[in-house]
Structure formats: C-alpha cells, structure tokens
Specification:
The complex is a heterodimer. By secondary structure, chain A is an all-alpha fold. Chain A is built from 3 helices and no strands. Chain B has a two-stranded antiparallel sheet. The chains are: A mainly alpha, B mainly alpha.
C-alpha cells in the first residue's frame, strides 16, 4: 500500500473502542466477586478513559495552532496513570487485610456494614 | 421639694417593698401600719412641699429629667416628671385622699391576719406609687407605666380575698377588660411617636397646637385611641362592666381605686391631651356622647340595686360619664374640677358604706339594713353630707361641678358647638335626667340604710356599733371636704365676678391656645359666654330643682308610712322595666353570649384542633413519625454489599446521562 492510500483511523473508532472497554470494565466490576478481578476491571475502566482522552487530544489537535493545546488530553492520561498506581497500592493493601480477616477476597463476604 | 419630685412616688414604692418583706415574716400589725401609712403620709408632705414651692415660683411648667429610659434609633424617652397645673391638682387630691384612705384602712382591715394585713398595705402603697407616676409622668410612656401599674394594683386588690372564687374572677375581669382599653392607649403612643417623633407632652402639644390644620387628621386618630384607653380605665360604655364587679375588693380599695383616683385616670388623660381632642370635633362629640349616655345608663341601673356597694359603683360609672361629658363639650377644667369634688364625696360615700358594712357584720344588702342612724351617727352625717354633694344640692361640692357641667353642655347645644348642636342638646337632656336619678338613688341608699327600723334581725342588731376613730376621722375630713371642696370652683361669672373660679383660672394654662383663626378652637374657647346671664341662672335653677325632686321622690318612696310600698307597686306596675334595670340590662349576659362564649369556644377550638391536633400531632409528632418511618424503610437499601453500591452508582450515572441527554 502506498502512503497515499494510508487512511488515518478516525477518532470515533477510538472512542468506540474506549466505550466498549469501559462497558467491559463496568460489567466486570458489577458481576465479579473476586476482589482482584474487580480491581482489574476497574483498571480497564480507567484505561478506557485514558484512551478517550488520547482520542480527543488527537481530534482537537487538528483545530489548534499550538502543540500545547493538543497535549491537554495526553497530560491527563499521565495524571490518571499516576492516580491509578496510587489507588492500586491502597486497593491491594485493603485486599491483604480483607484476606487476613476472612481468609478470602470475595467481596460479597465483606458485608457486615449494613442495617 | 421641687427638684426632687421623684421622692414622692419613691416613698410609696419603698413602703410597698418594706411591707411585702414584713408580710413574709408576719410582722405585727402596728409595724406594718407605721410603714404603710407613714410612707404615704411622708409622700403627702413631700407632695405639698413641692406644691408650695411650685406656687411660689414664676413658671407654670416644671420638668425634671432623671435619666434616659429608652434609647433606640430615633426613639428617646426620658424618665422624667412634670409639675404643671393639671399634675398639681391631681397630686394635691390623690395624696390627701390616698392618705385618708390608708388611715381608714387601719381600722377596717384590723381583723385580717398579719400576712394579709401587710399584703394589703403593700398593694395599697404600690398603687399610690403607680398613681403618682401616672400623674407626674412628663411623657406618654412614663404615664403608661403608671397606667398599667394602677391596673395591676387594682387587679391585685380586687382579688385580695382570692380564696373566694368570685373575687378572683372579678379581679381577672377587671384586668382583661382594661387590657382592651390599654391596647388603644398603646396604639395612641405609637401613633403619637409616628406623627410627632416625640412622646414628651411639652413637645407634642406645642407642635399640635401650633399647626392645627396640619395635625387635625392625626389628632382625631390619636384622640380616639386615647379615648379607647380612657373608656377601659374609667369604666365607660361599653367597657364599664368591670367596675361593678370590682366591688369584690375591700371597701377602702373601692373608695381609693374604684372611685376617687384610678378610674379618673381616663378623665385625666383626656384633659392632659386636650389639644388633640380640641383639634378633632369628631373625637369631642364621641367623648361627649359616650360620657352622656353612660351617665344616665349607669344611673338607671343604680336605681334598683340592693347592694350598697353596687349602687355606689354604678353611681361612680355615672359620675365618670359626667366628667367625660364635660370634656366632650370642651370644658376640660370642669371635668377635672368634677374629678376633684367627686373624689371627696365618693371616697366619703364608699368609706361610709365600708363603715356600715363593718358595723353590720359584712352585710351589704340594703334591704337588710335600716335605722342605722341611731347606732352610727358620725357615719350617718358624713354619708348624708356626701349624698347632698353628689345629688347637687347647693353649697355642697358636687353642686358646683355638676351644675357647671350641665351649663356647659347646654351652652354647647345652644351655640351649636362644632356643628353638632343637636347631639349636645340631647346630651343635655340626658344629663339633667341623670342628675334627677342620681339624687333619687343616693337618697334611696341613705333612707334604706339609715332611716326606718332595722331589718337585719335581732342577732345582727346587737353587733351594731360606730366604727373606730381611725375610720371616723377620715370620714369627717372627707365630709368637710365634700362641703367646702366646691368653692375652689365657685362660678364667679354668675355674680359678674372674675377670679373667683380658682380651679379654672389655675388650670387655664393647660388648655393651650390653638393656632390662629381655627374654627374648632374659637368655638370651644367661648362656649362659656355662649349663653346669656339669665339663662345661666335658669340652668342653676333647673339643676337644683331636679336634685330636690329626686330627693323628694326618694323620701316619699322610702320614709315613713307606706315606705317601700310605693316602689314595690311601681315595680309591679312596670315589671318589664324593673326587671330590665334590676338585671342591669342583662349586659353581662349579652357580653357573655356575644363575646365571651364565642371567644371561649374559639379558644377551645384553637387549643384542641389547631394546637393539639394540627400543630402537635400532625406537624411535630407527624414530622418525627414520617422521618422514622422513612428511615425504617430506607435503611434496607444499606445492604452492606459493595457490588450493590456499585450497581447503584452505575445506574445513577446512566440515569443522569439519560436525563442530561
């Protein structure tokens, strides 16, 4: 294929992928009982958001003269990665404690905080 | 004493406080007597010291400011006293009559317990304090404190025998009825401040008198509101009903508060604010009509009452009506003159009736008296003198004041005062009729009490005795005042003399001249010259004639052969009228049906339905119950399962997205 025939991927496709990933993640969070699996699903949701940011950065860069404007969305991605890392540290620590208490990381068994 | 007017009421207040403490420790009666009577005696001396100095200095108005009492925004009220001719006259007779009645009370209340005796004198001293505050206050708020204070003391003393349910009820009745009037008074104070930006007498009257046209409208409102207060305090139609019931209190209280001093406060305030009234022909005619109608209305009730104190009570209502009639025809000085003479003879009458009741083992029913002349000559003679005075027999005090009121009422009709000549003419007829009735019912009381044979049974006859010295001496003094008291207002104009009518000349500065060329002012100022010399003498003749006729009818009815037969026959002949009068026109029953019971029912409705059901049950308990119930249901949402929460969050986000789409 010649370069002339290389058509750029439309950003809507990327957004669609992001939406699909987000939905997979959300369903995973809602349906899985294993804490680690929920956690992984959560990471999928976060990364779908990253993808959406990147897609929008790509889309809006076309209309802007400066590179800085195009970088807004990409910078957000780094923030999210940093927050997700911190969150992972806290989350894993929680599951370790939960495992010590219940001998399991099944979140349905951690249900004593209720009426 | 001028310069420390505050000392006069404070002495009485000190007496009240000390007596309350003495009552708490059940101090012996002589100690209470010394404090109670001594404090008022000292206040009387202080008052006369001040009056003496007042008469010997050039100013007509002395104002003493002590401190700023209220200061908020534009309002600034001083605690200050004022001595001007009107306060001076009031001060002069309030202290003397008050002192005499304190002395009289020593004998009358001797049978009370130590605590009760001290309580009585504490209240009586407190009353003197409040009354002096009322008389001396130099602005409306200070006057109002006294006004409420005398009302409070009236309530406390009417309910002095509070163990008796009907006495306590009478006290409450007096207090509640007075509150209706007080509301008008309070509104008048607000209106005065709103219009003039001040409540000081010296400022508001000067302002109003200086610009009659500008303030005529406001004056009507203020005058009528003040008059509502006066109606309540001075027991005029339609708020007079409390005064006859107020006789439940000890008799000296009836004499002091419900005849001589407190009930004349309404007349005082009308005379004090005469500028407002004179600016408003409407207010004047309202005052005159209420006064004139009350005068004859109360007199007709007094005709057939058998309770000696009730007769005197209705007589007081009637006489107060005459005072308002005088004020309503512009004769404010005459109204105050009648206040003074009335305080002498009515205090004397009440104290005389107290002496009779005291001797007669508490009996107040005229039909169970008779022939007491033999047993208590001093009481008889003083009572007779006071009766001659109230009936308007010449040279006695009441003659001068009442005759002058009738003459001025006639003149108001003859000169077509403010264009209400017809109204004033009718009022004159009513007033003359009232004078006839007054002479009749008072001599009826005298004859039924002191003449004929004793009708109370042998048992009671043995106990009859003249009252102790402490009671007879005040009676004699008041009796003498009832004879000579009228000469302070000697009608010199009948003899082409000026300067003989001391009280009118003295009070003249209080009647501020209104701005130039104002119709109202001109008419009121000159009514006294509105009738010819011959007519004045004719009027004197008429008023003497009706008094004598009333006397003779009473004599025919209740003395000698066939006594009581004629009135009984008359009652049988006119059963309807007799029943109407005997039952006091069923006014109490009508008020009860029209006002008290509906209000009572409304109160029960508000209590049971609005308060208990709607507010308490529905709103307060209902709100708590709803919250509790909702919580009970909603707490099951808290499953403790983290995935449920996540589902809720996800669903909420979806819902929000759907809404915001």
């Amino acid at each position: 294929m010649t370069p002339a025939e290389m058509v750029p991927v439309p950003y809507t496709w990327v957004l669609a992928l992001s939406a699909v990933l987000f939905a997979i993640g959300a369903v995973g969070v809602l349906l899985r009982r294993n804490g680690i699996a929920i956690f992984l699903s959560l990471e999928i949701m976060l990364n779908s958001a990253n993808l959406a940011f990147a897609a929008f950065a790509y889309r809006f860069a076309a209309g802007h003269a400066t590179a800085a404007a195009a970088l807004d969305g990409q910078i957000f991605v780094f923030f999210i990665i940093a927050v997700a890392a911190a969150e992972a540290a806290v989350g894993l620590a929680l599951f370790i404690v939960l495992h010590r208490l219940k001998d399991s990381i099944d979140v349905d068994r951690a249900n004593i905080l209720r009426w | 004493m001028l310069g420390s007017l505050w000392l006069i009421p404070i002495l009485c207040l000190a007496g009240a406080v000390v007596n309350l403490l003495l009552g708490a420790v059940k101090a012996p009666k002589p100690v209470v007597t010394i404090i109670g009577v001594g404090s008022v005696g000292a206040a009387t001396l202080a008052a006369y010291g001040a009056l003496w100095e007042y008469l010997h200095q050039p100013y007509t108005e002395i104002i003493e400011r002590y401190f700023t009492w209220i200061s908020a925004g534009e309002i600034s009220v001083n605690a200050s006293f004022q001595l001007d001719p009107l306060s001076a006259v009031m001060l002069a007779f309030v202290t003397v009559v008050g002192f005499l009645i304190h002395v009289y009370s020593v004998g009358y209340m001797q049978e009370e317990s130590e605590a009760g005796y001290a309580r009585y004198f504490a209240y009586l001293n407190l009353f003197m304090f409040a009354m002096l505050l009322l008389v001396l206050g130099s602005n409306l708020p200070v006057l109002f404190v006294g006004w409420e204070g005398v009302g409070l003391c009236s309530y406390l003393l009417i309910g002095y025998y509070y163990e008796k349910q009907w006495c306590a009820a009478a006290g409450s009745k007096a207090f509640i009825v007075n509150r209706i009037g007080d509301l008008g008074f309070l509104l008048a104070i607000f209106a005065t401040f709103a219009v003039f930006g001040s409540v000081e007498f010296s400022e508001i009257f000067t302002a109003a008198a200086g610009h009659p046209e500008q303030y005529a409208g406001a004056a009507t409102v203020i005058a009528l509101l003040l008059f509502v207060g006066a109606i309540g305090k001075s027991a005029q139609i339609p708020l007079y009903v409390w005064l006859p019931d107020a006789m439940a209190g000890p008799t000296p209280v009836s004499a002091l508060i419900h005849a001589a001093t407190m009930v004349t406060a309404g007349v005082y305030i009308v005379a004090r604010c005469n500028v407002f009234f004179r600016l408003s022909p409407t207010a004047m005619v309202v005052v005159a009509v209420v006064g004139g109608v009350t005068a004859i209305f109360a007199a007709t009730i007094a005709l057939v009452q058998n309770d000696i104190k009730k007769v005197l009570a209705y007589s007081t209502v009637s006489q107060l009506g005459y005072m308002f009639l005088a004020a309503g025809v512009g004769a404010f000085t005459i109204a105050i003159f009648h206040v003074v003479t009335h305080s002498f003879f009515k205090a004397c009458l009440f104290l005389g009736s107290g002496s009779v009741i005291h001797a007669n083992s508490g009996e107040q029913d005229l039909t169970r008296m008779g022939g007491l002349r033999r047993f208590m000559p001093t009481t008889y003679w003083t009572f007779l003198v006071a009766t001659l005075a109230i009936a308007g027999i010449p040279i006695f005090a009441g003659f001068f004041s009442k005759d002058e009121i009738l003459a001025r009422a006639f003149a108001a009709g003859a000169t077509d005062l403010n264009g209400f000549g017809d109204v004033y003419r009718v009022l004159w007829y009513l007033a003359v009729g009232g004078a006839l009735l007054t002479a009749f019912y008072m001599f009826r009381a005298v004859y039924m009490t002191f003449h004929g044979a004793f009708r109370g049974g042998e048992e009671a006859e043995h106990h009859l005795h003249e009252s102790p010295r402490s009671m007879t001496v005040p009676l004699i003094i008041l009796g003498v005042l009832s004879i000579v008291g009228g000469f302070i207002g000697f009608p010199g104009q009948l003899f082409h003399k000026t300067g003989w009518n001391l009280i009118e000349d003295f009070l003249h500065p209080v009647i501020l001249p209104l701005g130039e060329a104002h119709g109202v002012a001109a008419a009121t100022e000159h009514t006294v010259h509105g009738v010819s010399f011959g007519t004045e003498w004719l009027l004197v003749g008429i008023s003497v004639a009706v008094a004598v006729v009333g006397w003779l009818i009473a004599r025919r009815f209740y003395v000698g052969e066939g006594a009581f037969a004629l009135p009984r026959k008359l009652a049988d002949r006119l059963p309807l009228i007799h029943k109407l009068l005997f039952n006091k026109y069923w006014i109490d029953e009508i008020y009860s049906a029209l006002i008290i019971r509906p209000v009572h029912r409304l109160a029960i409705f508000l209590w049971r339905i609005i308060d208990e059901l709607i507010i308490d049950t529905l709103f307060i308990n209902g709100a708590a119950f709803t919250v509790e119930l909702t919580g009970d249901v909603l707490r099951f949402i808290q499953t403790g399962n983290v995935r449920n929460y996540a589902l809720a969050v996800a669903a909420a986000v979806l819902a929000l997205a759907a809404i915001l789409w």
